[in-house]
Input
Amino acid sequence: MAVRIEKNSNVWTIIHDRPEAKNAMDPDSADALVEAFEAFEKSDARVGVLWGAGGSFCAGWDLKYAASMSADERANIREFDFPIGSAPAPRGSLGPTRMELTKPVIAAVEGPAVAGGMELAMWCDIRVMSEAAYFGVFCRRWGIPLQDGGAVRLPRLVGQGKALEIAMTGRKVPADECYSIGLCERVVPEGEALQAAEAMAHEIAKFPQQAMLADRRSIVETHGLTVREALKIEWANGLAAVSNEGFDGAARFTGGLGRHGDFKEI
Output
């Protein structure tokens, strides 16, 4: 199987293992990745980690597969459209890039995450990159546009001007620059991205989940809204969490736990 899952307590690591193609995404891999994240969404797992085995996060859409497509297969791609209303979006070429999960996913990036692979990493909530990892819209060379959320998510992460420069030039964006412009959230030594991402995932998973997920929803759902409309959503998302978890947490603090910023004993 090109995709497998490793389960450790409340954290699932979803692994794309197609190293002979630098984890480029073909239809079978994309379907398997969607299936894995559907299982994650329905499970009791709290945080997911997405990892590309063999030293490459993902080299994008499998261009060898694309070149082999028949005229009918190419026509089918042109004819599909997004459904009207709240129906699920169609599977992206990179698999889960149009899914809207209710739980966080962290990308652990070693080596290249380019073209669609960059889009797949940007789909995740957080990106942990090794010092040797890099992004880039490398599909610029072949006349292939961003179609898995890259043109939407990139400017939200780095701003419109920088997004245009990265997308239009297609240049390599190394990890240190990614961190400086907000395209990743942590840079670690080469070979340590997975360990660091899983450690972060376990840290997130240990907290009271309703409040954490309420804050996640508010951050995602209020993008682009006026302050007043955004505040309404934040208030609504937080009410249930405060009622179910917040008062219990206040009692634990009163009992002596978590003093002076201690995150270990909560």
